[in-house]
Amino acid sequence: MYAFFARPISIGLVYSNTYHHTSPTQPAVPLTLPNPSVIASASHATPVIQTRQVHLQCSGKIVCTATSTVRITSHEAAHLFLEEKYAIGQMFARLEKSPDFDLLAVGFGTVSADATTPLPEKTPLLSFAAGHEQQQQLWRKYRLSVAGFECDILEVFPSREMFTAGTRWLDVDTTTMPQEWGSTSLGFVNSTKEMPFVRSGFLRPQTVILFLGLGFLLMLAFELSMFFTGRPLFCYL
After folding, report:
1. In three state form, how does the secondary structure of the chain look?
2. Which residues cross the membrane (predicted)?
3. Phi first, then psi: what are they for 86, rounded to 5°?
4. What CATH fold (topology level) applies to the domain 2-171+178-229?
5. What tens digit of pLDDT does each residue of 96-145 get?
6. What is the edge-to-edge ordering of all strands in the sheet holding 10-20?
């Protein structure tokens, strides 16, 4: 998001919870840190799991709500992530491993139930936006994984307009004119009536999802390249 808007990004923590399995047959229990013995014993049989949700904010607006579930099955990764406090993106550079990337789901409007993570402590995803705003939001879920460290991330972006208008979307007060996008001088379009030359098939959900998926892959590739080339970033999950 920093690269897209070319403005500083701040992080607002919504919640962060850490759990661990005491045995393969027992459910996860809350973990209080620091706890060197649990971190040293992290394995496939007794993984450490952290769930977290943050708001990425730019120019006073929430530009992304990111909910992550990290599963740690090696003591090295647990030490770096929980004790050394490396961010998710930094972990792969520190481990000197390129993560496998799996795009699990992409959509717009309400986040589908099968894309959510069934964890009791997470905030219901339907509360990210309401009414008209909820129908404008975009979301994607993907997985980044290397041996010993796996992360599922759900990102919800509040509006499609932020990607078409960029910094103009940041600077306008959207709360005062939620229905006016199609007629403002910003050039936002909220109705196909403003685009008589566009065939209806072009705006089918499948087409939009395809373009979103390609765009998100390009964004992720750019972010990873910045991590591995050592260029500074202002935003980490």
Report:
1. CHHHHCCCCEEEEEEEEEEECCCCCCCCEECCCCCHHHHHCCCCCCCEEEEEEEEEEECCEEEEEEEEEEEECCHHHHHHHHHCCCCHHHHHHHHCCCCEEEEEEEEECCCCHHHCCCCCCCCCHHHCCCHHHHHHCEEEEEEEEECCEEEEEEEEECCCHHHHHCHHHHHCCHHHCCCCHHHCCCCCCCCHHHCCCCCHHHHCHHHHHHHHHHHHHHHHHHHHHHHHHCCCCCCCC
2. 208-228
3. -70, 140
4. Chorismate lyase (3.40.1410)
5. 999 999 999 999 888 876 665 444 344 444 444 544 555 678 999 999 99
6. 29-30, 10-20, 48-58, 61-72, 149-157, 138-146, 100-108
Tokens in use for 227? 């991590």
Q: Note the Cα 127 to chain centre separation in Å.
A: 16
The single residue listed with the structure tokens 């998001």 is 1
Q: Indicate the pTM of the whole model.
A: 0.67
As a whole number of angstroms, the distance between CA 165 and CA 4 comes to 11
The amino acid at 122: K
With both helix axes pointing from N to C terminus, report the angle between 205-229 and 88-95 in degrees, rounded to the nearest 10: 50
134 phi and psi angles, rounded to 5 deg: -65, -35
